[in-house]
Amino acid sequence: MSPQLWRYSIRSENGEGWAVFVLGSDGYFSAVSDYGNYAFLWCNHGCRDFREFLLCADRDWDYFVRKLSPGNVYDGEATERGIRDTILRLRRDRSLSMEEARTEWDLASNIDLDSEIGFHQWYIETALSDAWEYGQYRAPEHVVQFVRKCMARLIPLLKSDLEKDALRLEEAGI
Questions:
Q1: How many CA atoms lie within 13 A of 144 on its CB side?
Q2: How high is the mean pLDDT of the chain?
Q3: Strands (E), 45-166
Q4: What is the pTM of this model?
Q5: Which helix (H) or strand (E) holds 160?
Q6: In a 3-state reduction of DSSP, which class is residue 113?
Q7: Residue pair 167/54 in contact by the 8 Å Cβ criterion
Q8: Contacts of 59 (CB under 8 A, 6+ apart)
Q9: 38, 31 contact by CB (below 8 A)
Q10: For the segment 16-26, what is each residue's pLDDT rounded down to a tens digit?
Q11: What's the Cα-to-Cα distance from 11 to each of 19, 38, 159, rounded to whole Å?
């Protein structure tokens, strides 16, 4: 049997945030939007109706961001903050001497941690153990905006359609 398809259109608000969604009963998801184009297939979504599964977006936006993101981008500000917090913590618990902490602090100050190349340079020069783990990455902003703005506006449409479908089934005695 062929999967049932549903199409939903979201108009832009204040000149941004439009999207066209195509959903399939087999877990197919695709969207074309001004925040980018996305597709994913949830083969085992665990719900009677795939649209019910998407209603979970209302509770866990980050899950959908991770699924739809093509990859993460380096976050220099978060990386530097994490390095500095670690230096302070290690100094407080006396894992670093005052001189070692000053050396690490100066190293973080003298390298451009806003760039991933700078992070690699810091990684090579630091004496902190497990230095690679200090690199912080995040989903691209366009994916976050798509999920939080466009998918958020899809949710009420899905709820409405599911309620109408349930009413039709009830009236048909099914």
A1: 6
A2: 92
A3: 73-74, 137-138
A4: 0.72
A5: helix 152-171
A6: coil
A7: no
A8: none
A9: yes
A10: 889 999 999 99
A11: 7, 17, 18
Cα separation, 134 vs 126, whole angstroms: 11
* Token digits of residue 69: 């993101």
What does the pLDDT look like over 116-155, one tens digit per residue?
Answer: 999 999 999 999 999 999 999 989 999 999 998 999 999 9
For residue 65, CA distances in Å to 8, 71, 99, 101, 136 come to 19, 10, 42, 37, 16
Question: How far is CA 77 from each of CA 74, 103, 138, 148, rounded to the nearest angstrom?
Answer: 9, 20, 11, 22
The residues near 167 (Cβ < 8 Å, ≥ 6 apart) are none
8-state DSSP, 111: S
Query: Per-residue pLDDT tens for 39-95?
Result: 999 998 888 889 999 988 666 888 889 899 888 899 999 999 999 999 999 999 999
